Amino acid sequence: MAITSLPNFQITKTQEFTSGTTAWVAPSGVYAVECLLVAGGGGSGGCAATAGSGTGGGGGGQVVKKVLTVVPGTSYSVVIGGGGAGGTTSGTVGTTGTSSSFGSLLVCGGGGGGGGTASVAGANGAAGTNAYGGGNRGGNVSSASGIGGAGAGGSGGGACITGEASASGGSGGGAGGSATNVYTDSSVSVDSSTPGSGLFGFGGGGQGQFGSRTRAAVNAQANTGNGGTGVSVSTAVTGAGSNGGSGYCVISWIQ
Q1: CA 53 to CA 26: how far, in whole Å?
Q2: What is the mean pLDDT of each run of 10 residues along the chain (255 residues)?
Q3: Cα 147 off chain centre by
Q4: What is the dihedral of CA 39, 81, 96, 89, to 10 degrees?
Q5: Is the dihedral of CA 47, 53, 54, 55 positive or negative?
């Protein structure tokens, strides 16, 4: 017997958002969506002209996965945050990433900018909604890395170093936890610190760098929410910081 119609299966649909602002209208009969939302990561600090200096990594953007209640026929504005710019070559703090949002139902805060080599601590992560706070401000420690903090699901705080020779810039905290504090000086072979972890593959902290050799800026990949990697110089030259990765959103629903 010939098949004249398809069975009425439930179909899971998804939609990705990778930049800018997009209006999404809840389809008829759809009352809930699962939303994975990622904010922009912070830029790393810029390196001043101090031989042996390393800068702090940017904090990872906040990452939240949550079921949201929606109203059929209602339009929701989906905003994707941009990654923060790296600090300038004068040793300044990187820019905090910008927030991502799904209407007024969910807002994720951007990751804090990493500290430069001018004795300035990294920036706090931006706060989001739904009781997820921004990460703590990164440390500013002589001859040791200052770690970037992070709350559960919170955006990471950037970290830094004072700019002393042979000292490491601390890594940025990730969306899933604080960075590991790595003590480094001229007698220690470790030349970078461990970044904070992300969540669901997004929002990782940027790695801080040690000034044993020159490392140019490496920008975080787009739509990851990762913090920018720190830079370092082995001679008295300046180096601009790395940019953080932009945010991301994907929603799914049954229809």
Answers
A1: 51
A2: 51 93 96 94 80 76 90 98 89 87 93 72 67 50 48 57 48 65 45 71 82 76 92 69 95 92
A3: 15
A4: 130
A5: negative
Phi, psi for 161 (deg, rounded to 5): -145, 160
160 three-class SS: strand
Nearest CA to 232 among 141, 185, 158, 163? 163
The pair of structure tokens assigned to 214 is: 């020159």
Q: What is the per-residue pLDDT for 183?
A: 42
C-alpha distances in Å from residue 220, one per residue of 27, 84, 207, 228, 255: 35, 10, 11, 5, 36
Residue pair 34/82 in contact by the 8 Å Cβ criterion: no
What pTM value is reported for the model?
0.83
Maximum C-alpha span of the chain: 82
Give DSSP secondary structure letters for 33-90.
EEEEEEPPPPPPPPBPS-TTEE-PPPPPPPEEEEEEE--TT-EEEEE-PPPPPPP-TT
Question: Going by C-beta distance under 8 Å and a sequence separation of 6 or more, which residues neighbour residue 28?
Answer: 72, 73
Q: Check residue 154 and give its pLDDT.
A: 57
Return the beta strands (E) in 140-201 as ranges: 140-141, 160-161
